[in-house]
Each structure stands twice: as structure tokens, then as C-alpha cells.
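Appendix C. Worked example: MlaB-like STAS domain-containing protein
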Amino acid sequence: MSDISGPQVGPGAAEPPGSVAVLTTDSGVRLVLSGQVDAGMNTELVEAVHEATRIGLPVDVDTRTVTFMDSTVIALMAHMVNRLAHPVRFIEPPEVVRFLLDLTHIDEVVDVVDEEEVSSEPRSSSD
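Step 2, the predicted output written as C-alpha cells:
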């Protein structure tokens, strides 16, 4: 009998773990979410949202590589949107994120933009 080990590949493979990063420029903040973003990342997410709101500049939420998002994360995004004086943009959200934005009606208070509408840096506060 042989022992097969190593990373699992194919339909049964595990989703990539989630990550969050806050990138800043003089003109804005980009909150980058990727992989499985869920309640297990609560501490990281709260810190990132706190930092993004503390800076006080326009925020772009880059969710292009999110594979899963749960309701705790979308609730935190709603909290952030309500605390900011500037509009929030979601950059090319995948279907799982678009579904949650629609379900929670957050899509009515944020801008959802395609990749070609976004420069390599966050937008200025005059956008």
C-alpha cells in the first residue's frame, strides 16, 4: 500500500486562505481582500477597516481574487461605508461578492467598477 501525500489538487482541493492588505497613497486607500475571507479573519479585517477609515481618504475595495466571503465580512464593509465621508468603490467584485452586495443593498451606497475604470493607484478625493 502506498502513501500519497502533498497538496490536494482538483475539485476537492481546499480554497486558498484569505488575506487582507491596506495600501495607501496620498490620494486614497486600497483595501485588498483575497481568497476565503470570513469570520476567522475578524481581527485582521477589523484592524484593516480601522486603518482605512482612520486615514480619511477615498477607499477602493479590491475583491477581484476573493473566492468566498461570509456575512460577517460584508457587515464589516457596511460599517466602513457608513463611517467614511467619501464614497467607497468595489473593484470588479466576483459573483460571490456581488451577490452579498446586492442581498444587503450595499450596492446602492457603493460604486461597483470594472478593472478598466481603475488606475493602478486609488482615485483622488475629487473623483
